[in-house]
Amino acid sequence: MAIGGTGAFFSDAETSTGNVFAAGAIDLKVDNESYYNGNVCAENPLAGVSEPDQPYWTWQGPNAFPVPGTECSTSWELSDLDEGHLFFNFLDLKPDDEGEDTISLHVDTNDAWACMNLALTSDDDNSSTEPELEVDVQDDENDIWDGELAQNIDMVWWADDGDNVLEEGEQIITNSIETLSALAPENNPVQIALADSDENVWGGQGPIPGQTTRYIGKAWCFGTLTLSPVPAGQGDNPSVNPGITCDGTLLGNETQTDGATLDVSFSAVQARHNDSFQCEGDCELDTVNTIIPDSGFENPEVNTAQQWDIFDSPAGAWSVVWRDAGTSNFGNQVRPEPAHLEIHEGVLGTPFEGDQYAELDSDWGGPADNGTDEPASIMIYQDVTTVSGRAYQIKFAFAPRPNTPASDNRLEVRWGGVVVHDTGNVADGNAGIEWQEISVDVVATTTTTQLSFTDLGTSNSLGTFLDDVRLYSEVCRPLDN
Fold first, then answer.
1. How confident is the model at residue 84, as a pLDDT?
2. Once rounded to an integer, what is the mean pLDDT over residues 113-133?
3. What does the pLDDT read at residue 281?
4. 14-51 tens-digit pLDDT
5. In this structure, are residues 282 and 319 in contact, taking their beta carbons and an 8 Å threshold?
6. CA dihedral (310, 312, 317, 320) positive or negative
7. Is the pTM of this model over 0.85?
8. What is the tens place of the pLDDT at every residue in 206-217?
9. Residues 6+ away with beta carbon under 8 Å from 169
């Protein structure tokens, strides 16, 4: 007997159709509201009517439009910067001119880190007028860095709340007031973190949230700019009170016809899965191009039969001071002023580099003078334009004077007034010069840093040799815009 049958199983089926992966986006848009001498630069409502073939922007404020010569082009609506927009386009500056802007950064959709890059691309004399030549040298047509305009435009940037006015408590995002040349040194782009893993200039921490707007204020003055922030929350607009003052009364004719150009760029980078983002890209030390002149003491040139000579301060690019400020007489000798830098052209041995080197226990009278043993130790220095927070390397060649005791040869190096290297007392009992190359890594904390070398040996006109002083700067690759 056979029994047959079928079995039944409970079941269910669910289907998800049309599954999608879609990439998000980071899109940074920028607009700018610009004021020049208290007048807002706004779109001319008559554009395309009064000047159908030449639409332009003009002033709104005390100067009614259209006024010849008052056109401007430094305000625009939300767009990309590669559409030809300029934050600065002022072609007839006069001392005491000033301007304020509010830059709006709009981050679309996703949270983003944000950075700003400034690069001075020229500071050119352009030409030389008769009044300018009374106080300045003739323009060099082949040199785009022989001007004085960038050194006489003061500038400040801050995290703004959107009203163009510097208010109390708003964070300055540059090193307070800086000249244009100090803010963005020649051939040395500056990357400024607006929001990265270390800081957010608008307060708090973290990236700029998606679908939000952040504001940056900037002000400039052709002359001396002074901060006078208005009380927090009471800013109106720069036509009422910009929060800064400008004074051009101290300017002379050096800047006539000069021109300066500046590149300004912004970048946004996704924040998700990018918690440790830093605004500066890959950084490396440029060990090819020293950023100080007269590094090898080849200028001034020694032309004496004795193969050494003394030169008044400044000697080339080096300022020189006597180490012992209170010493004015030695025997029948009177110490000369200014101090002297003693330069040798191989008289006691081969230079480390080039044809000449310096002795930092100098001489009062030079090769024609019979006086000896006078206290002539010196300090030499250069004031260098630097970027605060940037790494640098000091590199130089040091040697004790041959056939002198250790007490005669000691070199001290200072960076920004702080001792960063001391050779200690070093003797050399040999007949020739024995050089040693020394490297010191440092970081700048200001926009101008003094680099100095001082002979700390016995001050008796016999001592420390120095050659081939170089200063290398860290160069950081700016992020893509």
1. 73
2. 78
3. 60
4. 665 555 555 445 567 888 888 888 887 765 444 434 44
5. no
6. positive
7. no
8. 898 988 899 999
9. 229, 232
Q: What pLDDT, in 10s, does the model give residues 365-397?
A: 999 887 788 999 999 999 998 877 788 999 999
Mean pLDDT of the 326-351 span: 89
305 or 124: which leads in pLDDT = 305
Q: Which domains are assigned to the chain?
A: 26-279 (no CATH), 308-476 (2.60.120.260)
